[in-house]
Each structure stands twice: as structure tokens, then as C-alpha cells.
Structure to design on (102 residues):
């Protein structure tokens, strides 16, 4: 599934909208498009700011932030789409920390 991401706040939720032809998406792909509470995005972004150089996989972040793995993946992907984090080879890191993303 490919498309373009749009991030916005709606009623205190940070929503990532994937613009695409949804007719060809699997149920798992559609399920990943659920809204992410804004306070979770803010909390996770703050953790990356407070721990410069923090590099985590989704499963590591899930344990670190005490979040369900699916919700954690959504939060991290939303922060990537917002330009706060970048991901390289499955490892998430703050933009401007360490190696810069392309």
C-alpha cells in the first residue's frame, strides 16, 4: 500500500491520513490508520528530546513507553510523518540526533 501521509489534530487526536485508493488495502493496513491520541505523540516526542541519541525499534519503544505494540507503531509512524522522528532499518530516532535522515 502506497500513498501520501497527511497529519493533523482533530479533537485532541493526532490523525495520520493516508491518501490512497483504499479499495486495494488489506484489513491490517486499514487498521493501522486508527487515530493516535495527541498526548501520546507529545509524550513520546518529549522522551526522544529528553534522551538525545535514543534509538529504538517498535518492540523496544512499546516496552519503554508501556504501549500496546500496534498503538506504539502508530505513534512512531505519526511522528515520522510529522518530521519529528526518522526511521532507518526499523530503528526510530529523533531528527537532528546523530545521523541525519535523507
Amino acid at each position: 500500500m502506497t500513498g501520501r501521509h497527511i497529519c493533523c489534530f482533530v479533537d485532541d487526536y493526532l490523525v495520520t491520513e493516508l491518501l490512497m485508493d483504499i479499495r486495494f488495502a488489506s484489513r491490517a493496513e486499514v487498521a493501522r490508520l486508527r487515530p493516535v491520541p495527541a498526548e501520546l505523540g507529545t509524550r513520546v516526542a518529549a522522551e526522544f528530546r529528553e534522551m538525545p541519541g535514543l534509538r529504538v525499534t517498535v518492540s523496544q519503544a512499546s516496552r519503554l513507553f508501556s504501549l500496546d505494540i500496534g498503538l506504539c507503531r502508530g505513534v512512531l509512524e505519526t511522528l515520522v510523518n510529522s518530521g519529528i522522528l526518522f526511521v532507518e532499518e526499523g530503528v526510530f530516532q529523533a531528527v537532528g540526533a546523530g545521523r541525519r535522515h535523507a
Q: What stands out?
A: The mean pLDDT is 76.
